[in-house]
């Protein structure tokens, strides 16, 4: 017998949601009310519990999919045997004799998962479980941080965490053992090492609640050094959800006393006592290293121009509603710039090339990198074969990659292989800047703030929305003439978007 799992009621006027995270995979056994996945709407995160005990037989809506109210998410095959098996995975206090009989009594090693191509090591960022904790299969144990992405490590089997071999902050190689699980779930808390570090205590356990908080909430609390007792849970039975943590983080701090009531610090106060030293994340270390390597290696030069955005803004204003209605994506400026750059790269192929030893490798395709700022640093997801994509396909790809970047869900493969990059500092208010190359690429375009300025048009002074453009390029590959011509072609395409349609 099969039971359907459907999207629950999302709230007044909310008609759709995005599947954020699946905590179970096909073949997993689930208990009644055990959380299967999380959905994200414009305002809140919605948890989807299992309506029955059984086995998850099929996932219909994958992570990242947009679903409407009552849409089919998954199917569960009901099974008494499956329900009994899931019962074994509950805390030992409920049926220790039954658990011991069902257990094999063996141990399972928790190894570093596949980190991605060319990635050989990672840093243990956060442990979500402590020694002695009972865990279910696929429950998240810890998080590793590589040069560019965070990697979650799930439990390979149900049991008890008996040993942690790599503490938080430790650097581990791609084949290292992280911990040991005892598949004998009857193991009691007496086996817990008395020296188990408090720093890796489960945020849910710290609250004293006998309820499992949302994994995404635990992760966010760990990242911000918060405990669950600092957050008011609004989920089932007081469960802390991701939005509860976000709300707690955004809550105004207690008002500081006025300056008149604060005693002045002595002039000779030790400044060191007022400093905070924080270890750089691996992502930040990699950003620093790659940018400095770029400056040290490439013969980097920047050329500037400006573009009148009147025609692009008019075209966007005229068609944006119709575009979104037909394609389900917003019509932004990035698709115009991506198209214009792809067009210019065909004429000036050296800007799309790279140096390999004593060779120059010309790319007959455009894998466009779109620089995106995230809470943990700058990342550059790559849109592959952007030169063969439509405006709608580009906008959808940029939106999807941007969201995954902000959520920290980009894979290594999604940030490799770019041939050219666009960076939009204008969203932060930058009027002009010189972007740094993303090696081994030979060119990067910097977009900036659109600002009204007086311009001379046909002998008359008119106010026009202008944007400064900056092209940084590797002078070892690209000559000044090619760089200037490239930027002029981008300018021409944006000032007369019809040229893109006519391939001019």
UniProtKB/TrEMBL annotation:
Source domain of life is: Bacteria
Enzyme class comes to transferase
Entry's EC annotation: 2.3.1.61
Q: Which InterPro entries did the record assign?
A: 2-oxoacid_dehydrogenase, 2-oxoacid_DH_actylTfrase, Biotin_lipoyl, CAT-like_dom_sf, E3-bd_dom_sf, PSBD, Single_hybrid_motif, SucB
According to UniProt, the reaction catalysed is:
N(6)-[(R)-dihydrolipoyl]-L-lysyl-[protein] + succinyl-CoA = N(6)-[(R)-S(8)-succinyldihydrolipoyl]-L-lysyl-[protein] + CoA
**Which GO-annotated molecular functions does the record name?**
dihydrolipoyllysine-residue succinyltransferase activity
Q: In which pathway does it act?
A: Amino-acid degradation; L-lysine degradation via saccharopine pathway; glutaryl-CoA from L-lysine: step 6/6
Q: Does the keyword Acyltransferase apply?
A: yes
- Keywords, A to Z? Acyltransferase, Lipoyl, Transferase, Tricarboxylic acid cycle
Q: Which NCBIfam families match?
A: PRK05704.1, sucB
This chain belongs to the protein called Dihydrolipoyllysine-residue succinyltransferase component of 2-oxoglutarate dehydrogenase complex
Naturally occurring in which organism (per UniProt): Parasulfitobacter algicola
Q: Which gene encodes it?
A: odhB
């Amino acid at each position: 017998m099969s039971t359907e799992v459907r999207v629950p009621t999302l709230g007044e006027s909310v008609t759709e949601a995005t599947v954020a995270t699946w905590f179970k995979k096909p073949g997993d056994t689930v208990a009644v009310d055990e959380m299967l996945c999380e959905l994200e709407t414009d305002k809140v995160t919605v948890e989807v519990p299992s309506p029955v005990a059984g086995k998850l037989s099929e996932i219909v809506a994958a992570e990242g999919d947009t679903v409407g109210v009552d849409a089919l998410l998954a199917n569960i095959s009901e099974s008494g045997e499956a329900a009994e098996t899931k019962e074994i995975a509950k805390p030992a206090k409920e049926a220790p004799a039954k658990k011991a009989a069902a257990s094999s009594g063996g141990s399972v090693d928790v190894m570093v998962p596949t980190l991605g191509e060319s990635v050989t090591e990672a840093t243990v960022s956060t442990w979500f479980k402590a020694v002695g904790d009972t865990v279910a299969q696929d429950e998240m144990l810890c998080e590793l941080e590589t040069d560019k992405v965070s990697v979650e490590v799930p439990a390979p089997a149900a049991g008890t965490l008996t040993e942690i071999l790599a503490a938080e902050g430790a650097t581990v190689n791609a084949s290292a053992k992280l911990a040991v699980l005892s598949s004998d779930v009857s193991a009691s808390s007496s086996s817990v090492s008395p020296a188990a570090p408090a720093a890796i205590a489960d945020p849910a356990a710290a609250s004293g609640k006998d309820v499992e908080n949302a994994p995404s909430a635990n992760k966010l609390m760990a990242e911000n050094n918060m405990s669950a007792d600092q957050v008011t849970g609004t989920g089932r039975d007081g469960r802390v959800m991701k939005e509860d943590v976000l709300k707690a983080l955004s809550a105004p701090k207690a008002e500081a006393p006025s300056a008149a009531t604060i005693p002045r610090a002595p002039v000779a106060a030790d400044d060191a006592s007022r400093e905070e030293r924080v270890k750089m994340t691996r992502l930040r270390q990699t950003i620093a290293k790659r940018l400095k390597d770029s400056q040290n290696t490439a013969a980097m030069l920047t050329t500037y121009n400006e573009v009148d955005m009147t025609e692009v803004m008019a075209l966007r204003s005229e068609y944006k509603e119709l575009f979104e209605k037909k394609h389900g994506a917003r019509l932004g400026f990035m698709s115009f710039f991506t198209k214009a750059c792809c067009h210019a790269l065909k004429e000036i192929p050296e800007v799309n090339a790279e140096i390999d030893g004593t060779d120059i490798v010309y790319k007959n395709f455009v894998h466009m990198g779109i620089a995106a700022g995230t809470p943990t640093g700058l990342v550059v997801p790559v849109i592959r074969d952007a030169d063969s994509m439509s405006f709608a396909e580009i906008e959808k790809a940029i939106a999807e990659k941007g969201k995954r970047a902000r959520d920290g869900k980009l894979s290594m493969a999604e940030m490799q292989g770019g041939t050219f990059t666009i960076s939009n500092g204008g969203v932060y208010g930058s009027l002009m800047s010189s972007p740094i190359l993303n090696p081994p690429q030979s060119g990067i375009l910097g977009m900036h703030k659109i600002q009204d300025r007086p311009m001379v048009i046909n002998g008359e002074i008119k106010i026009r929305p202008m944007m400064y453009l900056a092209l940084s390029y590797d002078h070892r590959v690209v000559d000044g003439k090619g760089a200037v011509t490239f930027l002029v072609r981008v300018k021409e395409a944006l000032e007369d978007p019809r040229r893109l349609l006519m391939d001019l």
